[in-house]
Design goal:
The protein is α+β, with helices and mostly antiparallel strands and 172 residues long. Helices cover 18% and strands 45% of the residues. The protein has three helices and nine strands. The strands form three sheets. A five-stranded mixed barrel has the order 5-6-7-9-8. The protein has a two-stranded antiparallel ribbon with strand order 1-2. Strand 1 and strand 2 form a beta hairpin. The longest helix has 15 residues. The chain is elongated. 6% of the residues are buried.
């Protein structure tokens, strides 16, 4: 047995019940079966019956106890690296993400290089098809309630290489 205390209330439960209480899949199912339907108009009570007799009852007010608690995100990877990207789509509106490709994968990245954004806003930098950005990239991967989430942040644009290339002349 395990004793749980919540405020002034104390409850003794079995270790097996505690493990069920801590299980996210079980809590998710309880929320879907009990808490969500009791939020709907016309449904006031959830009952469990055995042999025609009611064995358990949950009211609308009690249904909040069956809501799955939100879990804090867990950072799995926090990495800084240098990377090259071609620009697939750029965003001039603040806080919008740019779509960048490394040749294998397209990502949505937030540009946080204030100096680069200032130069873009003041038309000191222009873009054309095939442009490449050499960047310091910050990658954060987190485990969330819905699965793995990856955030890409361009901390610094090191170089902007225009898309047009010219054949170099070699003089000897």
């Amino acid at each position: 047995m395990v004793r749980l205390q919540y405020g002034d209330e104390t409850v003794d439960i079995s270790v097996e019940s505690l493990k069920l209480l801590q299980s996210l899949p079980v809590r998710d199912s309880l929320q879907k079966i009990i808490e969500e339907p009791l939020k709907m108009d016309g449904i006031e009570v959830f009952e469990v019956r055995s042999g025609g007799k009611t064995t358990e009852t949950v009211t609308r007010e009690e249904s909040v106890y069956f809501a799955k608690p939100s879990m804090p995100d867990e950072i799995l990877v926090d990495d800084h690296r240098r990377a090259a990207f071609s620009i697939m789509a750029l965003a001039f509106k603040d806080d919008n993400k740019w779509r960048l490709s490394n040749g294998e994968q397209t990502i949505s990245a937030k540009i946080e290089d204030a100096d680069f954004l200032r130069r873009v806003n003041e038309n000191e930098v222009s873009f054309s098809k095939g442009d490449i950005l050499i960047c310091y990239l910050h990658v954060i991967q987190k485990r969330t309630d819905t699965g793995i989430k990856t955030d890409y942040i361009v901390d610094k644009v090191i170089d902007h290489k225009p898309g047009t290339r010219q054949i170099p002349f070699i003089f000897e």
